């Protein structure tokens, strides 16, 4: 057991956990942040994507201890002051989700993608960038549409919108 | 339509919780004192159990208990059943082998549950599961559906000699044989429909909680039909009587059929909760899902289609072996029979059809309905054969289809189904136009110049949805009626709760069902809440599968709304001193037609509850329930066209365009319907190109994770071109046909027809992986 | 995952010291292979020594054609380095096609090389670039470093601190990914400086990454895809699994090599 401290969604948190505890389980079970999901065991589906120090990572492939002293943002921390993030709003407007299970990871991946590409994205790039996120419901059609719409919406502000 | 009524592209009400991380899935549920369970599973595909020693595991840190099959049996927990009786051609009933929730004497596939370990944490439970010692005597294994019928194959269930579950037939065999004998041309094929793993992104999970003080059980589970789960667990598995068992299916992360069935885990978690005195939660990991979720498809078929000199189909004969795996899952017998062979007429006038289906046991995961369920298999057989016939006959695949289309309705096929309506040519024309079918040769030539092989393929499908008329399915062997129920509860302030037996796990019912109410009453959808997924809240229901929620579930709501409106009109007529026949409800008002005399909807509701001034003898309140039993199946149909480019050097196939032209009858929310098509088509393309399920000779599943089972990703797919051609369904009040499965049904043959067209080699099986296509290019 | 203990090192020396005192310890960098392996209970180190936060092991330095990449530099950092892309586009492009964006944010060049997965991308680049693998103890030539599937010249407690190489005149990497896992089914890195051409292949060989010497000599005199016509890797030395037979992989090696040559220009 170790004491793990980090900042999650702007709040300092700590917990005593077994060293083998994955970040995703720390978030879900110790902090009650159940928006981050586990959809596979092999680091492929991306349902668990969160931002660690501003970068999208798979929280099922990282120990909580590895994230100690880091800044973590989860899906619950994305909407600032109750206002939906443009990516969240675009997913709703363009029907970019059906069952909603992959959605938190998709949205966190999309925000990261838009940040890295400075608001310049086309369909082919979006599809390639979604390599680490699997959705079984939407056929990705409306996810791609939502990401492109959000990119446009965010425009030049893309770089700063994430955290 | 109003801005939020039928036909409006309304953004979904349920989205906010999912996009903000506030969805509530089974794994998210927490009950005080809850412990974590891990199942001990067979590593062998076929073995006798000689003994189970749990003593070491029980002594491990954090372990509450370790329970095995004998204890479960001692407590009288029943065996899992298949709820649809099929009789063989000789009249004998199907041979259903016993499926114990925890295997006692024998395991029959890798993943068969043997024991449950309950501990403080999941990691501890898993540590202890490894310490459970099971002594197996390994037996010979068979996984292939054809091999399992051969002499000398390992016997999997004692009561299914030769591993044959049933040998069933439909149609007229003699007439079909003679039609084929007299045909000017007969196209013959052997067709394999590959086994698929459904892979809803949320793995299955169950939380069983026994409350000793109340002698009452609650089960949170990832179910598409919680009421059916309760019914089956009460009536057949002896878990608890229905009044003492509450089943809750909260947010469910996709189902695609795999969450219809009642699996061993929810039964065992409930039983174990009573046994141990703690709430017991189990969550599948992905490999467990691969091993134990009911798989889909897995057919091997021989087909003969005969044509006369004018290229009209004269007869169709189909002989299929359907692999049902190691045990018969809940609806497994219906899928390769009444959901498959009854669709073998497709969109075509076929005077003679005979279908024979042999269902078999193998040492593999159970197989049951997966998105489309039987209808994709039928469509694949027909549409691969039609395309092949066109090539053999030297005519355009589109024109061969056009020449054989059914054009008059209702149309009775030789295989039970009676199509009420449709306009198949409209979809064919729309798809060909959208795909610029006529411009294909020029595109092919251009691709040739880039060293790519371009091909185009078509598929015209029909399916039977709106499952299903209870009396009809009862006569065919179903153990339940397939109606749906609804209750419309108007509150005193006029807001409304609709309780439905349908279950939403991505389909958007919270929005579309509210749109229906909004359309009828003219109130905002925000004033309408949809309640589902809890047997304590909703009286009864049959759940969501078979594209039935619109055609059947919403029809039940219509019936309940009819009753609500009737009472509201009576109240309004009384208050406005008008004739009931003159009262209309529109824009949130209840008014006397052609006058300015009106009451707000909320005023009528309030009057119903204050009951100060109701018509004589009327009961207070405004709440009505209804059951709707469909009069017929519904028949969505359409035409899909796929265009591909093959890289002959690597065999890699790129989908250049995919066009879907569907007739779903009336549509409540086009945005949601399009989304259903997108998802279905992606699954169909996945089946055709990527998703292969491979068992080795020893019955080990080689594709048990996303490292080896290829899920379609965004980069594998194009954006889709979707359009609708509408003929209204004539047998339900909304004219809805259903849209949930069409994409997965119509798309696989279109993809394979396109690839085989591109490479000039028709000998290609699904999934058409790069390796297979490369080999086929070289063999062409 | 079995129980383990986690130790974060702030320096290479501290990491080596912690490894010395730990029983059954293992270094973890990005953990993008090790953590999934541990989750599947296929690896069970009693202690994990985390190298990800060691400042000396991070960053890319470029001096003319001489490139040095710290072992804890992530794939994303390599992929997005404009300076690196200018001198050695092949390796930047390679890094941009490892795993997926999230994996690239965590996974490191040192971790990838130390693991030497037979389908990993970096080993091909190291061999083709003739890189030197720097450790806390020595410098190892890439040709001596990779020793078959998941095997390297590293000692138990040895830490890769950096890799260095001289950028070739031309280079490119072409990869045919496994459709499911997206690891290479065949990945070919081609590097050319004057007449010296190196062709390294990953994902396909039974013994892991290897150099295709026959192709190298053919390309030395004629650096064009057509130079490979008539050549073939030995099918008998190719991997064969449910995703690709040895025959198919042999074909992919050739096709990817030709495409890499065309891209290198």
What is the gist of this entry?
Chain B: Pfam families: Ald_Xan_dh_C, MoCoBD_1, MoCoBD_2. Chain A is α+β, with helices and mostly antiparallel strands and 163 residues long.
Walkthrough of the structure:
Chain C: InterPro entries: CO_DH_flav_C (IPR005107), CO_DH_flav_C_dom_sf (IPR036683), Diverse_Substr_Oxidored (IPR051312), FAD-bd_PCMH (IPR016166), FAD-bd_PCMH-like_sf (IPR036318), FAD-bd_PCMH_sub1 (IPR016167), FAD-bd_PCMH_sub2 (IPR016169), Mopterin_DH_FAD-bd (IPR002346). The complex is a heterotrimer of chains A (163), B (780) and C (265). Chain A has helices at 23-30, 86-93, 103-116, 123-129, 141-154; strands at 2-8, 11-17, 49-52, 55-58, 71-73. Chain A is of the alpha+beta class and 163 residues long. Chain A folds into 2 domains: 2-74, Ubiquitin-like (UB roll) (Roll), CATH 3.10.20.30; 86-160, [2Fe-2S]-binding domain (DNA polymerase, domain 1, Orthogonal Bundle). In chain A, helix 2 (86-93) crosses helix 5 and helix 3 (103-116) packs across helix 5 (141-154). Chain A is globular and about 45 Å long. The model of chain A is unreliable at 156-163 (pLDDT under 50). Chain B has 3 domains: 31-139 and 201-254 and 259-292, Alpha-Beta Complex (Aldehyde Oxidoreductase, domain 3); 299-468 and 632-779, Aldehyde Oxidoreductase, domain 4; 483-628, Aldehyde Oxidoreductase, domain 4 (2-Layer Sandwich), CATH 3.30.365.10. Helices cover 28% and strands 22% of the residues of chain B. Chain B has 19 helices and 28 strands. Chain B is globular and about 85 Å long. The termini of chain C are far apart. Chain C is globular. Chain C is an alpha+beta fold. Helix content of chain C is 33%, strand content 23%. In chain C, helix 2 (34-39) links the parallel strand 2 and strand 3 (47-50). Classes of the chains: A alpha+beta (163), B alpha+beta (780), C alpha+beta (265). At the A-C interface, strand 4 and helix 3 of A face strand 1, helix 2 and helix 6 of C.
């Amino acid at each position: 057991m170790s004491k793990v401290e980090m900042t999650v969604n702007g709040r300092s948190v700590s917990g005593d956990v077994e060293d083998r505890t994955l970040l995703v389980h720390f978030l879900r079970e110790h902090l009650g942040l159940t928006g981050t999901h586990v959809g596979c065991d092999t680091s492929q589906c991306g349902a668990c994507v969160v931002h660690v120090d501003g970068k999208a990572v798979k929280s099922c492939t990282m120990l909580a201890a590895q994230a100690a002293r880091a800044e973590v943002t989860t899906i619950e921390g994305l909407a600032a002051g109750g206002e939906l993030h443009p990516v969240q709003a675009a997913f709703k407007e363009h029907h970019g989700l059906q069952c909603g299970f992959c959605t938190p990871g998709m949205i966190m991946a999309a925000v990261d993608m838009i940040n890295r590409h400075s608001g310049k994205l086309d369909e082919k790039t979006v599809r390639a960038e979604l390599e680490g996120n699997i959705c079984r419901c939407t056929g990705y059609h409306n996810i791609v549409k939502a990401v492109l719409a959000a990119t446009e919406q965010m425009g030049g502000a893309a770089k700063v919108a994430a955290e | 339509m109003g801005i939020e009524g039928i036909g409006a592209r309304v953004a979904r009400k349920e989205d906010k919780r999912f996009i903000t991380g506030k969805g509530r899935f089974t794994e998210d549920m927490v009950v005080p004192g809850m412990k974590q369970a891990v199942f001990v599973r067979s590593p062998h595909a076929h073995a006798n159990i000689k003994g189970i020693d749990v003593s070491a595991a029980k002594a491990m840190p954090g372990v509450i208990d370790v329970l095995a099959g004998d204890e479960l049996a001692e407590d009288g927990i029943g065996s899992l059943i298949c709820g649809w009786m099929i009789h063989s051609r000789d009249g004998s009933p199907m041979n259903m082998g016993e499926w114990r929730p925890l295997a006692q004497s024998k395991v029959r596939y890798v993943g068969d549950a043997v024991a449950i370990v309950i501990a403080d944490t999941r990691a501890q439970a898993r540590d202890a599961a490894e310490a459970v010692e099971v002594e197996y005597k390994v037996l010979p294994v068979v996984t292939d559906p054809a091999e399992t019928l051969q002499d000398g194959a390992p016997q999997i269930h004692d009561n299914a000699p030769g591993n044959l579950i049933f040998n069933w037939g439909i149609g007229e065999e003699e007439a079909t044989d003679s039609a084929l004998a007299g045909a000017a041309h007969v196209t013959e094929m052997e067709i394999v429909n590959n086994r698929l793993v459904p892979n809803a992104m949320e793995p299955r999970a169950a939380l069983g909680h026994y409350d000793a003080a109340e002698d009452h059980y609650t089960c949170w589970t990832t179910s598409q039909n919680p009421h059916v789960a309760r019914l089956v667990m009460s009536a057949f598995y002896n878990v608890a009587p229905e009044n003492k068992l509450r089943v809750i299916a909260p947010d469910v992360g996709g189902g695609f059929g795999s969450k219809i069935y009642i699996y061993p885990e929810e039964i065992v978690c409930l039983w174990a909760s009573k046994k141990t005195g703690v709430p017991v939660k189990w969550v599948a990991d992905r490999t467990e899902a691969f091993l134990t979720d009911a798989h889909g498809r897995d057919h091997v078929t021989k087909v003969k289609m005969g044509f006369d000199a004018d290229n009209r189909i004269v007869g169709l004969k189909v002989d299929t072996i359907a692999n049902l795996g190691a045990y018969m899952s809940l609806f497994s017998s219906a899928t390769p029979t009444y959901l498959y062979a009854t669709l073998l007429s497709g969109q075509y006038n076929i005077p003679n059809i005979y279908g024979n289906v042999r269902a078999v046991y193998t040492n593999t995961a159970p197989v049951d309905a997966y998105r489309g369920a039987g209808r994709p298999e039928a469509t694949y057989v027909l549409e691969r054969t039609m395309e092949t016939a066109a090539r053999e006959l030297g005519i355009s695949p589109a024109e061969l289809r056009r020449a054989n289309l059914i054009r008059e309705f209702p149309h009775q096929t030789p295989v039970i189904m009676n199509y009420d309506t449709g306009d198949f040519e409209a979809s064919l024309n729309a798809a060909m136009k959208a795909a610029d079918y006529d411009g294909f040769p020029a595109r092919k030539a251009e691709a040739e110049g880039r060293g790519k092989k371009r091909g185009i393929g078509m598929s015209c499908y029909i399916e039977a949805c709106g499952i299903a008329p209870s009396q009809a399915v009862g006569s065919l062997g179903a153990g339940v009626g397939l109606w749906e129920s609804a209750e419309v509860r108007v509150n005193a302030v006029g807001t409304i709760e609709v309780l439905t037996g349908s279950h939403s796990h991505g389909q958007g019912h919270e929005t579309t069902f509210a749109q229906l109410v909004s359309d009828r009453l003219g109130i905002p959808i925000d004033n309408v809440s949809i309640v589902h997924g809890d047997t304590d809240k909703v009286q009864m229901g049959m759940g969501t599968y078979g594209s039935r929620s619109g055609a059947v579930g919403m029809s039940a709501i219509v019936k309940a709304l009819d009753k609500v409106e009737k009472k509201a009109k009576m109240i309004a007529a009384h208050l406005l001193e008008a004739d009931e026949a003159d009262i209309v409800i529109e824009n949130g008002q209840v008014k006397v037609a052609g006058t300015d005399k009106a009451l707000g909807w909320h005023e009528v509701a309030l009057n119903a509850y204050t009951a100060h001034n109701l018509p004589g003898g009327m009961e207070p309140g405004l709440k009505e329930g209804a059951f709707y039993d469909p009069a017929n199946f519904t028949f969505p149909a359409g035409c899909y066209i796929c265009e591909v480019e093959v890289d002959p050097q690597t065999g890699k196939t790129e989908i250049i365009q995919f066009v879907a032209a569907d007739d779903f009858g009336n549509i409540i929310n086009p945005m949601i319907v399009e989304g259903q098509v997108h998802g279905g088509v992606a699954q169909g393309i996945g089946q055709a190109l990527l998703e292969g399920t491979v068992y080795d000779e020893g019955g080990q599943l080689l594709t048990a994770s996303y490292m080896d089972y290829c899920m379609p990703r965004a980069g594998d797919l194009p954006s889709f071109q979707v359009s609708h051609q509408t003929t209204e369904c004539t047998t339900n009040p909304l004219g809805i046909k259903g849209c949930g499965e069409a994409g997965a049904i119509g798309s696989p043959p279109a993809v394979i027809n396109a690839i085989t067209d591109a490479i000039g080699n028709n000998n290609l099986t699904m999934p058409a992986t790069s390796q297979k296509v490369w080999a086929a290019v070289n063999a062409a | 995952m079995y129980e383990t203990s986690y130790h974060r090192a702030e320096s290479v020396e501290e990491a080596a010291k912690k490894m010395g005192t730990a029983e059954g310890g293992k270094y973890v960098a990005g953990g993008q292979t090790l953590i999934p392996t541990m989750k599947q209970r296929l690896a069970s180190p009693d202690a994990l020594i985390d190298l990800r936060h060691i400042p000396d092991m991070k960053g890319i330095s470029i001096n003319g054609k001489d490139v040095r990449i710290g072992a804890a530099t992530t794939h994303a950092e390599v992929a997005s380095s404009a300076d690196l892309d200018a001198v050695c586009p092949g390796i930047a492009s390679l890094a941009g096609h490892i795993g997926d964006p999230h994996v690239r944010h965590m996974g490191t060049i040192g971790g990838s090389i130390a693991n030497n997965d037979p389908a990993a991308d970096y080993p091909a680049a190291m061999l083709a670039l003739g890189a030197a693998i720097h450790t806390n103890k020595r410098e190892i030539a890439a040709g001596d470093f990779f020793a078959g599937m998941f095997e390297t010249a590293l000692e138990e407690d040895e830490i890769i601190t950096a890799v260095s190489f001289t950028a070739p005149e031309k280079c490119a990497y072409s990869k045919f990914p496994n459709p499911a896992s997206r690891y290479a089914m065949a990945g070919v890195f081609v590097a050319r400086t004057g007449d010296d051409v190196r062709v390294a292949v990953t994902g396909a060989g039974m013994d892991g990454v290897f150099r295709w010497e026959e192709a190298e000599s053919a390309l030395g005199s004629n650096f064009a895809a057509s130079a490979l016509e008539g050549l073939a890797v030995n099918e008998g030395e190719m991997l064969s699994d449910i995703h690709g037979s040895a025959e198919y992989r042999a074909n992919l090696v050739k096709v990817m090599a030709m495409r890499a040559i065309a891209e290198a220009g």
